[in-house]
Write a structure and sequence with these properties.
By secondary structure, the protein is α/β, with parallel strands linked by helices. The chain has three domains: 151 residues, NAD(P)-binding Rossmann-like Domain (Rossmann fold), CATH 3.40.50; 156 residues, Dihydrodipicolinate Reductase, domain 2 (2-Layer Sandwich), CATH 3.30.360; 80 residues, 2-Layer Sandwich (Alpha-Beta Plaits), CATH 3.30.70. The chain has 14 helices and 18 strands. Strands 7, 8, 9, 10, 11, 12, 13, 14, 15, 16, 17 and 18 form a twelve-stranded mixed beta sheet that branches. Strands 3-2-1-4-5-6 form a six-stranded parallel beta sheet, sandwiched between helices. Helix 1 crosses helix 12, helix 7 crosses helix 8 and helix 13 runs antiparallel to helix 14. It binds NADP nicotinamide-adenine-dinucleotide phosphate and L-homoserine (HSE). NADP nicotinamide-adenine-dinucleotide phosphate (NAP) binds next to helix 1.
């Protein structure tokens, strides 16, 4: 009689409870796919009295350390945050367990250290659920595209902000009202900072960039702007020009092939771009690879059951490796590309200015662009009382040149107000 593979869960909340339920319900099928029985031996939580649908109360414990040190074949960490998750994972690796985690914050900060430890101890470290929940994305980047050269990733990797921006676009509502609605519906947390200020997307961008460009990238390497300053006027202007506004996570190789730029910020995307049709809380990542060309991964980025699908996929992968006596692919950081600043990013811009409606003003404004070597692509002028509203789209230039142009414009007496400034991405598809 073969002994079953043992799994323990650290965390039994939104994701953990769904994993526990599905693991038990589907044990027979999963065992058949793995080639050996698999059994759930414990679930560590904080509050043992809380009711958890489909989780056998006999499996619950508050002693996460004991489970982490149990030597289970697979330890699944779904507590979240840095501590105690990091220490528990280190303990589990040291005790010979393979790790499955959904923890983007931890991986984006301490991924290299955990990978090294796992490699030293000969165990697996899988984290498909850490980016874009249910969407198979990290495995395709690490394995299916391992023979190609990824040039650029553009992703909508945060459901909360995509829900807010989609609602602002469809209803013309302002940011504060839609945020309150998102909180009432349970999409946004009571403290929405991690989502709306782009921290969550930045952690995910770091993980994606690391895998795509074979380089160690942490959250601190990611340029970050959130959506809290996006106004209803920005959205209306974008709509009138044939664009939508999305919070994008972008990772790209620099033209000299020696560096990468990783950034998270709101951007105008043409309505014809596949990412423009990603609405509500859905996620999608658009990948451009040298040989494969363009492709998009789309689906649910959050939710207990969808995210549990990714976690279970990783459990099966780690379990199959145990049965075969092998290990999955380790982290690849051989390229060690330099992380370059946002100033080197090459992007187009949209500017919304309120200017004096007098002769010579347009010439003065266009000379400010010329001074910084930024080429104007299109200008639209509307009367606004005694002033004029100017919408300007630029050709691509480095972000540093565009920022310098904006600074010059904001000091010019002819410019009454710089109402909106936004990068434009996803030009030609
Ligand atoms: P959650 O609902 O807050 O669950 C966290 C769980 O950890 C709870 O069961 C909690 O116990 C338990 N816990 C907290 N501290 C503990 C400790 N010291 N010892 C033992 N147990 C402890 O979080 P979640 O939404 O499931 O998220 C888990 C992870 O998945 C995070 O890394 C998150 O980023 C990631 N993730 C979540 C989603 C999603 O849609 N929710 C999607 C993708 C990735 P109690 O239940 O007793 O409070
Ligand atoms: N807060 C995240 C989101 C959950 O809104 O997408 C999934 O990581």
């Amino acid at each position: 009689m073969v002994s079953p593979l043992s799994v323990v869960l650290l965390g039994g909340g939104t994701v953990g409870a769904s994993v526990a339920k599905l693991l038990v319900e589907q044990a027979q099928d999963l065992s058949a796919r793995i080639g050996r029985p698999i059994v759930l031996n414990g679930v560590a939580v904080q509050d043992i009295k809380k009711s958890r649908d489909g989780v056998d109360p006999k499996l619950l414990t508050t002693d996460a350390t004991k489970l982490a040190q149990s030597g289970a074949d697979i330890v699944v960490e779904v507590i979240g945050g840095i501590e105690p998750a990091k220490t528990l994972i280190e303990m589990a690796i040291t005790h010979g367990s393979s790790i499955v985690t959904a923890n983007k914050a931890l991986l984006a900060e301490h991924g290299a250290h955990l990978h090294k430890l796992a490699e030293e101890k000969g165990v697996d470290l899988y984290y498909e659920a850490a980016v874009a929940g249910a969407i198979p994305l990290l495995r395709p980047l690490r394995e299916s595209l391992a023979g190609d050269k990824v040039m650029r990733l553009l992703g909508i990797v945060n459901g909360t902000t995509n829900f807010i921006l989609s609602k602002m676009y469809s209803d013309g509502a302002n940011y504060a009202d839609v945020l309150a609605e998102a909180q009432a519906l349970g999409y946004a947390e009571a403290d929405p900072t991690a989502d709306v200020e782009g921290f969550d997307s930045a952690a995910k961008a770091a993980i994606l960039a690391g895998l795509a460009f074979h380089t160690n990238v942490t959250s601190a390497d990611v340029y970050r702007e959130g959506i809290s300053k996006v106004t209803a006027a920005d959205i209306a202007a974008a709509k009138s020009l044939g664009y939508v506004i999305k919070l994008l996570a972008i990772a790209e190789i620099t033209p000299d092939d020696l560096g990468i730029i990783v950034r998270v910020h709101p951007a105008m995307v043409p309505q014809s771009h596949p990412l423009a049709s990603v609405r509500d809380a859905f996620n999608a990542v658009f990948v451009e690879a040298q040989a494969a060309g363009q492709m998009m991964f789309y689906g649910r980025g959050a939710g207990g059951v969808p995210t549990a699908s990714s976690v279970l996929g990783d459990i099966v992968a780690a379990a199959r490796n145990r049965v075969a006596g092998s290990l999955g692919p380790a982290q690849s950081t051989y390229a060690d590309l330099k992380i370059r600043g946002i100033g080197e990013a090459v992007t187009a811009y949209y500017l919304n200015l309120r200017v004096a409606d007098e002769s010579g003003v347009l010439a003065a404004i266009s000379s400010a662009f010329a001074k910084h070597d930024v080429s104007i692509q299109a200008v639209r002028q509307d009367g606004v009382g005694d002033d004029a509203g100017l919408i300007i789209r630029t050709h691509k230039a480095t972000d540093a040149k565009l920022q310098a142009t904006v600074e010059t414009l904001s000091k010019m007496p002819e410019v009454r107000d710089v109402i909106g400034v936004m990068r434009v991405e996803g030009g030609a598809v």
